[in-house]
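Example 3.2
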Amino acid sequence: MHIELRKLSISRALSEETTAYSAEIWIDGIKAFAASNHGHGGSDLYRQLGAVTEAEVDAWLKVNRSPRHFDGLTLEPDLETEIARLIDAVETRRVLLRKLKTAVVTIEDDAVFTYPLRNRDRSALVAALARSKPSATIVTVDDEATIARAIDLTAAGDD
């Protein structure tokens, strides 16, 4: 089951206890739910648009996803934790792409590091990192696979 968010709109101004958002949830290429959260600490709201039910998605997730650990809690896989994971990935990507404007980002030993430019030439810093850390992977804006790996590693660090 491939679950993705489309038309995600996050309202940081309305987010108090939880992330205020609205989105479409697509499953296996078909629009399945309209989703939202008002940002006041309540659960996500889902309006079923297709044939797949929330219970079916929850059952699949319990078999195919690991529990998520957050703030000392263990969250069992369900549609709400999956949507939170997807929103986290979108937010992490946004932050990572913003960092790439002012820093060189690397993946070293399954950890993500940021080296601020601080008025240094980007290519000189990349060359110096390549010499001093030959096993490091440089994250670049045009390498989607490396960006995805950096996002996954960042999310794994939150557990």
